Every structure is written in C-alpha cells, then in structure tokens.
Amino acid sequence: MDGTFRQTWDRAVAQHGDRPFLVFRSTSGHRSEWTYAEFDAVVARTAGALRAAGVGQGSAVHVVLRNCPAFVGLWLAVARLGAWIVPTDPASAARDVANQVGRVQPVVGVCAADRSATYHEGADGRVPVVLQLAEEASDLTPSGPLHGDPVDGPDPVGPRDRLAVMFTSGTTSEPKGVVLTQANYAGVATAMASVVDLRPHHRWHVTLPLFHANAQYYCFAPAIEVGASVALSATFSASAWVAHARELGVTHASLFAAPIRMILARCPADEAPLELEHVWFAQSLGAGHYEQFSRLVGTPPRQLYGMTETVSIVCADAGDPLRHDVIGTPLPGRTVVVADTEGGGAAGPGVPGELTVLGTPGDDLFEGYLDDPRTTGRAFRAAPEGTWFSTGDLAAADGHGVLRFVGRVDDVVKVSGENVSLTEVEAAVAQAPGVLEVAVIARPDPVRDVVPVAYVVARDPEAPPRPADLADWATHNLPPAARPREWNLIDELPRTSVGKVRRFRIPG
Q1: Which CATH number among 3.40.50.12780, 3.30.540.10, 3.40.50.1110, 3.20.20.80 corresponds to the domain 1-18+29-181?
Q2: Please, which pLDDT band fits residue 169 given cuts at 50, 70 and 90?
Q3: What CATH number should be reported for the domain whose range is 326-409?
Q4: What Cα–Cα distance (Å) separates residue 265 from each residue in 157, 322, 354, 461, 483?
Q5: Does domain 416-505 have CATH number 2.60.120.20?
Q6: Most buried among 190, 251, 330, 466, by the most CB within 10 A?
C-alpha cells in the first residue's frame, strides 16, 4: 500500500468539498452538520491546537471520549501531523487509564470534562497536557479548546508511520494494543468502500463507539474514500435506533448481534420499517431474530467477519439469498486457511478449525502488538507467500468454501466428546421466550468433562422466564450436548462497550 490516510482525507476534501461529511446528533437531539470543506477547517485548527500543546511527528494523543465531532477532528488532525491516536473506552476506570498512559506515554490527553477526575487520577501527572471537552459541537467553536492556528502544511508522513494504537475489547483476557499504520487506514478505506459499492450519496449510521474498529474501519474510512457522509449519534438507543435512522436519512448501518437483539426487544411495536440499502452485522444471530430485523430495516443484513488486527474484513456473505448463519467467502485479494487445530494442515469440510489469514503486517494486517514481541510472534508466521496471522477464531467451511463462524478457540468445548460452540448456543437461547440476552459458560463436570451453564437476562424483569421452562425449550431446540445444565437469572451481563460479553467476568 503506497498511500497514507492523510492523502485519503485530502483527496476527499479536494473532490467533495461541498458535499456533506458529518451530521452529529447530540444526546439532546440537536443536529450539527459540516461539509467536507467545513470539517477540513476544523481539522486544520485542531491540528494547530495539538501542535501548540507539543504534539509532533511520532507523538501519541490519548483520546478518552464518547462519540462526538471532536473525536473525528482529533483523529484526522493526528493523521495530518504524523502523530498517532490512542482511542479509549470513555467508561475506562482510573486503573485502565493508568495502564494505557504508562504504555503509550502520550504528549496530550483528551477527556470529557465530567469524567476528568477519573482521567487525572489514572494519569497521575504523567500526561503533560490534558484537554477537557464537552463532547458537543461547541468543542469546535473558536472559544473551544481545540481551536488553534490552522495547520495545512504537508509535513512528511509515510505509509508505514504509526497512526493508531487500538486496544482490543478484552472479552477473554486483558486488552492488547493493536498497532496500526497510515497504510492500514488507507487500505481499509479503499477495500470497504469497494465491497459495499459505496457512493457519495450514501450515508452511514454510526451508533457504535468511535474508539472501536467497527466505526472507524467499516463506516468512517470508506465514507471518506468516496465522499459519502456519516450520521454520528452521541449514544446508542435501542428504543430510538430506528427513529433516529429515519430522522438522519441514513442508507447504511453496521451493528453487532447484541445491539440488534436490544433493538428488537425495545423498538416500539408499531414502528414503521426503514428502507436501508445495506446493513453489516457481526457475531451470531438466530434465524428468527435475523428475519425480524430484516423486516425492520428493509433489507437482509449481511454478516461479515473481521478483527481489529485484520483491518478490513476477511470475508462476508455474498450468497443469494443472504443467510443468518454464515460469514461467507473471502474478499477479493484475501487468502484464508481453516487450520486443523489437532492434526495440522487444512481442516476438512464442516470441521471447525482456526481461521488464518495471509497478508502483510502494516499493510492489510496490523503491524503488531504494542511492546509485546512475544504475543506478536505467536500471532504471525512468516512464509514464502507472505505472513500468516492466526486469528484465534474458529470457523468451518462447507463443500463450497462458504464459512460459518463457530467462536473463539476457547469458546468451543467438548461435552462428552462432542464439540459445542458456546457462541452458537447463546444465539439460539437468545430466541427463547422471555429471554433478552444470555451468556453461556463451560463448567467442569466429573462425567461429561464440561457442561454448558446459562446466565439469562429477562426480557421483562417483572415476569422472568422460569428455569424449568427454559430447560424444556432447550430440550426441543438444542441437541443434547448443547443444552445448558443449569439456568441462572441475572440482572445484566458484563459487556464491552460494543456489546461483546466478557465471559471471563462471569463467575463459574
């Protein structure tokens, strides 16, 4: 990849300056809008403010913000300066802030004014400049903290220069720092715009958090590549998601399975369906939920598979008709192997194996894990044809090469010798009467090795499902090995900010 993401942005401004770029819907419902040219002026002033605070080429900027226009401006300003951004969950505790500050040593930290005490506690005086924002459009006004002398000059920025360190969700262990380059972002912009045939008149609906790869990789970057627009919501609202999508005139959306199930549970029953052109989704959806959501958004959602580490997606459903239970086939230019986890070589049709992806670190794969050569070395394997990345995810291919996601390597367990995907059990049980969401973990068993145990959040807390009724439902809907042996009702599941369940935080 020869280009940089800064060039991607500059080209969009030159070609689409008068077109809409960003529509921001605040928590109060107020809308603010910028064209590409107008937001480029924001980027120039933000770059000036960062430079005045000491940010130069190779500097780290630690951003701990909810979805807001300033987040977008900081991301693009950092790209202009040749610096790098560390986008962080705004719900991070002081301990998390302390850990990241120690690892990335930022020159500038940016946080919300109403959460600044937590940031300062974690930073403990180790961040030279801390900027406090309102997380509103007002952050970008002349009186705001990001208003500096415009920086438009072409400081030298190369494709392999670092642009971000993005910490993974940490669903099974502590987060790892994924190092990403200018070329990574330029490449994902091109690849993801192509795979959905994105055009300037399209508009992405972004309600997932901007600190996460999905919003950056699959929505913002491809929109910038073609001059499309993005509607950014300050927060995700399951009950109002459809109404907000209609209000903002969006054509495209990207979600995980958990937010989709929340939308289906909370959306008003009389809500008129949308007429979207395209919807991505990731993680498992049951057939009933898939059909229901298809009717609600006006188009069958298309399942994809990708990771922060793979940058652009690896594969997506391209079948006709689209299905709820496959991640499809590799994108053009992507080479994958489903590796047999026991015998070596490629797994046979229908046999789960670890998904491995061929690529080039720093180009179409992440560059490596921050300050962790041992973990990077385990993830990458050099070969004559390139570098293979071991995803840690299990998939199975049918006789036509269509892939089905099975789960993380440690999400598939053997119950009396039979493979059981905890991910697939969760997708099925989430459709049981009275269930809003569920997590399934494996508990040691002296007879069966391990057995599934379910933790259920009720759709109606005042009238929760009875464990006996759930067990009866499982008897009629799940194979014997996959049926949970115990049912526990809990108030909520421990989740990441994008809805992934942190199973390791559920007491076994």
Answers
A1: 3.40.50.12780
A2: low
A3: 2.30.38.10
A4: 47, 23, 33, 13, 24
A5: no
A6: 251
